[in-house]
Request: fold
Amino acid sequence: MGSGNEGVKISPETMLALGQRGIMLSLDIYERDVSDAHKGMPQA
Reply:
């Protein structure tokens, strides 16, 4: 993910197919700390 506000879409057909097969979808989405994003970058 390039920014903290990106998303992923899962179609209703895909969710239905997963449910019919007893498959659980688990998502772990996080945004790294802004201070980490600038470590090692030269200061302007």
User: Anything to note?
Assistant: Helices lie at 12-20, 34-37. The chain has one domain: 7-44.
